[in-house]
Amino acid sequence: ALEKKSNLIASADVLTTKELHDLAEKVGPNIVALKTHIDIITDFDYDKTIIPLIDIAAKHNFLLMEDRKFADIGNTQELQYSYGIYKISNWADLVTSHVIGGSKSLDCFMNVGVVAILGMSSQGTLTDAHYREEAMKIIINEPNVMGCVAQNQIQDDLLLFTPGVNISAGGDSKGQQYNTPEHVFKNLHTDFIIVGRGIYKADDIEQAALTYKTRGWQAYEAAIS
Ligand code: 5BU
Fold first, then answer.
1. Containing H/E element for 51?
2. At 159, phi and psi to the nearest 5?
3. Among this protein's residues, is 69 annotated catalytic?
4. CB 30 within 8 A of CB 8
């Protein structure tokens, strides 16, 4: 992040391997991580989808974050994390997980940074203040949790990742609620913004990634000064 002067994570919610690789190449120079939902890739093939993606990530020096949002018992999560066709444990640097299964359910995530879901950006989410208070009790005792996804400020010793970020604040018709980069850095003291449609739906994807990176970094520096 410091090297690239970037707090930007691009969300690659695209449907084909080609779109995923094209997006990764375009946003790569300006991001710290590419966030995937690998199970939405319609033509997924481990060798054709993942191997080149690892190369693109190495070339542009960004991490791969699989937004799997695990939410099961430990044994099942362990299987979902390492087996099936996606073999997430082979390639993801970061994974997202709910903590609803309790602390032991998180023990299966070895050699990966766990980003715990503390609060969601969608309208009507059940992650209210009581939920977050109880979830945080689990999170602070888990050595492999390095941060939280949330829409509120959290304690300083955990990294804060904030999705639901778009320059045109508002939302979509399916309950998503957006804040601007400036809002989340100033008011939530977020560490990383996660931007999906604001970038991959833009007419000029490279320019959009640069805009989010620049606005995000400026707002971050203003918030910590
Ligand atoms: P968007 O296109 O910028 O709205 O995409 C946001 C991404 O962040 C998308 O991949 C969601 O799955 C993800 N997300 C979110 O939007 N809100 C949340 O609370 C969580 C994840 Br957790």
1. helix 51-60
2. -75, 145
3. yes
4. yes
How many Å lie between the centroid of ligand 1 and the Cα of residue 197?
A: 9
Q: Is 55 among the residues known to form the active site?
A: no
Concerning whether 47 is annotated as a catalytic residue, the answer is: no
Q: Give the pTM.
A: 0.98
The model's pLDDT over 29-56, given as tens digits with 9 standing for 90+, comes to: 999 999 999 999 999 999 999 999 999 9
pLDDT at 169 over 80: no
Is the pLDDT score of 174 beyond 80? yes
Is residue 154 within 8 A of residue 119, CB to CB? The reply is no
3-class secondary-structure state, position 186: helix
Q: Which of 13, 15, 139 has most ligand 1 atoms within 8 Å of CB, for mutation?
A: 13
Pocket lining for ligand 1, CB < 6 angstroms: 11, 13, 37, 67, 117, 120-121, 149, 163-164, 176, 194-198
